[in-house]
Design brief:
mainly alpha
Length: 157
Amino acid sequence: MDIFDALLKSHELQRELVKRLLSNIGDAGERGGDFERLKAELAAHETAEERAFYVPLIEHDEAVEAARHGIAEHHEMDEMVECIDQLEPGSAEWLAQLGKLVHKLEHHLEEEEEKWFPVARQVLSRTEQKDLGRPYQQEHDRLKAKEEQESSEGIKP
């Protein structure tokens, strides 16, 4: 699995979680669980992506903008998640903020796949693309397990 396959696997999971989250809008229990799963996936994906994908991209002049832009959007989404966490689940404000997060996430995934992945494919050799997939996936899985453990214990990072 190369880096793009690994990233797309996580992107698809994020899309599926958003779809479930929005379809369970009237069920507070399901919605809360789906939001916790989305939070864990986003946290794991963002950090693993920054370490295994964006850092190597920054080494190439043509990809610096892509990496910086992606990291900035990750930070924006982290702040949105923190805001949602402070609100009463299911409240009008919670739903409004969730809508903003979903919009930002959809924009980020689309832009990354359609604009930045082609740049990365140009600057990273095929060997690098293959070699980056495994470290990304291992870091993602480690971080996701940590996020899920902390969530089940009620620990906020």
